Amino acid sequence: MRLIPLEIESKLRDKGLWPQTWTARAAIYVLAVDLVVFALQLLLSRFSPGTSASLAGWVSFLSFLAATLYTVIAFRWLRSQLLWRLRNRLIVTYVFIGVIPVLLLVMISLITLYLLAGQFASFVVTSEITTRLRNMESSNRAIAHQLANRFGRGQTFNAEAVAEIRPQHWEWSRRQVCAWYRNQTQPNCAGPAGVAPFDAPPFVNDNFREIVRDHGILYLRTATVIGPDPESVRVISSEPLDRSLVEEMAADLGEITLLQPKPSAAVPSVEDKNKPGITISSSGEVSGDGHWEPILTAGAIPTASSSVDPEIIFPTPLFVVDWASAKGERQRTAAMGVHTRPSVLYARLFAALGEYAPFVEYILLIIAIAFAIIELLALWIGTRLTRSITSAVAQLYEATKHVNRADFSHRITVKSNDQLATLANSFNSMTASIEGLIQEQKEKQRLEGELAIAQEVQAQLFPKEIVQLESLEVHGFCRPARTVSGDYYDFLSLNTDKMILAVGDVSGKGISAALLMATIHSAVRAYSIEGIPLLREPAAVGAAAGSGLMLASEINNSEVSPAALLGLLNHQLIESTPEAKYATLFLGIYDGSTRRLTYSNGGHLPPILISEDGSSRQLSCSGTVVGLLENVDYPEATIQLQRGDLFIAYSDGVTEPENDYGEFGEERLIQIVRENRHLPLTRITELVTAAVDDWIGDNEQPDDVTLVLARAR
User: Fold this and answer.
1) Angle between helices 357-404 and 419-461 (to 10 degrees)
2) Cα–Cα distance between 711 and 713 in angstroms, integer?
3) Residue 277 neighbours by CB under 8 Å, 6+ apart
4) Which of 321, 349, 377 is the last residue of a domain?
5) Is the pLDDT assigned to residue 285 strictly greater than 80?
6) pLDDT for the residue 280
7) Is 481 found in the same domain as 396?
């Protein structure tokens, strides 16, 4: 049972609203189920709130599924609408091939530059720290050697000795130096007043240079150990990594923030012990929970030098050694964030160039402008090319619409010299050719109609009902090679005992041959009828046609002569047809009372007479063709027919067809007729034409096939 009537479905299909894909059908079904469940939920909410709440999840799920399906449908519809035009497709292609890669390259470049700038800023700060540590290490090594020399000379080892050797310039005003000789446990220290001395951990048994955390405070410390135990001298220099030191490093750079893991009171689980930022001492003390907090902030964010001078924030982890640990392992328990701008980093990076630094800016600016110009030029060229392609396709599309409306006169305007222009020219040439072919087709149809009429008219010229004589049975057959034929045959009964047999072949084929055939047909019939006005005139026909013709009075008072008829026809054709047109014509008059056949031949193939016993002979009396030469005498001959004699007259379309074995030939014709001479004349005709067709095979019939048979009885 159909839920939707066919009429409604048909209207929806016509308007394009009927779902065609399974996605559209599924979306409609899911939405319908969702609405039903939602209505059921509203209905149950009044009577059974618990059941209604259980349906809420299904409503949400079905709504989400329907929204997803309709989103897919909307995307497909939008894609089909936008990408139907070739211009939009090319634009999308250009965006994916040209624009998006450029944007990605620009983004990658900006991200790379940002990371490099941040890394460079961090490198500046870490390099400053490393430089201070190396300076402290070199000074510390000098202090250690001086102390070792003093102790070697037996001088007293105490804090005053350390203070005397400790450097006095301003960099060391914040640094504390502690020394141990042999296995002393208490250090001899010299440094700023009020600073408590620090201990020497077990892991400091060789040269040392690191950032350390001692009692929660970060220090820069270096250690130098000279000599083997127990005569070793151990010297450690320390400088706090505090605000004043950070401000020195942040000068002309930006804002620097030191970070450390945020303390956590709870002891982490086993799974949390390996998380980054968490350090657990040997005693189980937790030094971080994965979150960071600032220790101190020094410096200030530089002022932007231009609108394209953004802020750069880049954190860098610091490896810190816990001074209280036994092994002195380096851990990432501190971090440093640098907040600066590209202009400051640029000034630092090219500081060595001095006054030539702006030239680098100009060079970079010129390169950027050149790249921008190239990109804009590429965009302009791509747009122009796209418009040229889409315009050509649009013109072709409009042209096809004209062709679909059978308007072949429309031409595409060609303004370029490329492959699309060649395509447009080909289209114009095609439509012009089609327009010409249509005109030719119309002309051909008109000619075919005229030929059909001519064929009907010509068919009426051939004898339809033949009056058979008592002593002579006749039959004729003509099959044109084209629509109309240039061959001719006729049977004219003069009286109950006399009949004219005519067989002819006009030169050429087609309409011209058919017209000349009609002329011959009319003339033969006109000249062969006794008592016509021309034959009653006393003037000699030969005065116009030549001395070889009979007088009209003679024709009127005596029997009709085949030679005289040929002479009249020859004169008529010469007067009424072009010089190149002529015909071959055989005329014979059979007299049934005497069984005699009087004939004259104007260049036609000699007829054949086959006797009852099977012997054959040609009627060889012949003259020239009719319609070609003036003053021609045509010979005439008479033969006596016996009962059973078979007369055969034919055109060259019977004997001259060829195949790989040569012509069909007269001998083959005679053989077929001789073997079947006792059959009806229509059957003999069928056998002869069938043999000719087999001989021709699949080839086109080369000429008209005409066959006239007469049997004496």
Assistant:
1) 10
2) 6
3) 261, 288, 289, 290, 291, 292, 332, 333
4) 349
5) no
6) 38
7) no
Q: Do 234 and 374 belong together in one domain?
A: no
Give the Cβ contact number of residue 94 at 10 Å: 17
State the first-to-last Cα distance of the chain, in angstroms, to the nearest integer.
83
Q: Which amino acid is at 685?
A: T
Classify residue 90: in a domain, yes or no.
Answer: no
Q: Which of 669, 659, 645 is nearest to 698 (CA)?
A: 659
- Residue 88: what pLDDT? 75
Residues 394 and 510 in one domain: no
- pLDDT tens, residue by residue, 675-691: 999 999 999 999 999 99
Q: Does 599 lie in the same domain as 490?
A: yes
Categorize the per-residue pLDDT at 288 as very low, low, confident or very high, splitting at 50, 70 and 90. very low
Of 454, 114, 73, nearest in space to 310 by CA: 114
pLDDT of residue 553: 38
Alpha-carbon gap, residue 468 to 474, rounded angstroms = 7
- Name the more confident of 665 and 18: 665
CA distances from 276 to 53, 123, 215, 296, 333 (A): 45, 22, 21, 21, 9
Instruction: Determine the Cα–Cα distance for residues 370 and 594; give it in Å rounded to an integer.
Output: 118
User: In this predicted structure, what is the pLDDT of residue 658?
Assistant: 92
* Domain span including residue 362: 352-461
10 within a domain of the structure (yes/no): no
- Shared domain for 453 and 468, answered yes or no, is no
Q: Tell me what pLDDT residue 100 has.
A: 86
- The pLDDT, as a whole number, for residue 297 is 92
Work out the angle at residue 91's Cα, subtended by the Cα atoms of residues 88 and 95, and round it to the nearest 5 degrees: 140
In a domain, 88, yes or no: no
Q: Which of 330, 349, 368 is the last residue of a domain?
A: 349
Measured distance CA(118)–CA(636) in Å, rounded = 127
Measured CA to CA in angstroms, residue 132 lies from 136, 162, 175, 322 at distances of 6, 21, 11, 20
Share of the chain above pLDDT 90, in %: 31
- What angle do helix axes 342-349 and 357-404 make, rounded to 10 degrees? 130
Mean pLDDT along residues 424-446: 87
Q: Are residues 342 and 403 in the same domain?
A: no
Buried b (16+ CB within 10 A) or exposed e, 517-555: bbbbbebbeebbeeeeeebeeeeebbeebbeebbbbeeb
Structural domain contains residue 308? yes
Handedness of CA 8, 12, 13, 15 (dihedral sign): positive
Spatial separation of the C-alpha atoms in residues 97 and 379, rounded to whole Å: 12
Q: How big is the CA angle at 218 (ends 213 and 219), to the nearest 5 degrees?
A: 100
Of 270, 271, 265, the residue nearest 286 (C-alpha): 265
455 and 474 fall within a common domain: no
Find, among 224, 220, 223, the residue nearest to 239 by Cα.
Answer: 220
Return the CA Rg of the chain: 62
Tokens of 674: 């001789």
Predicted confidence (pLDDT) per residue in 251-282, tens digit? 888 999 999 887 654 444 444 444 444 443 43
Does 62 share its domain with 125?
A: no
How many independent structural domains does the chain possess? 4
Per-residue confidence (pLDDT) for residue 557, from 0 to 100: 41
Average pLDDT of the residues in 278-294? 52
CATH number of 521's domain: 3.60.40.10
Q: Is the peptide bond before 230 cis (omega within 30 degrees of 0)?
A: yes
Stated as kind and residue range, the H or E segment containing 298 is strand 292-298
Using a pLDDT cut of 70, give the percent of the chain over it. Answer: 88
| Tokens encoding 92 | 């999308």
- Of the candidates 270, 688, 248, which has an alpha carbon nearest to the alpha carbon of residue 478? 688
More confident residue, 262 or 700: 700
- What average pLDDT does this structure show over 97-105? 84
In the predicted structure, residue 528 carries a pLDDT above the cut 70 = yes
What is the band of 203 on the pLDDT scale with cuts at 50, 70, 90? confident
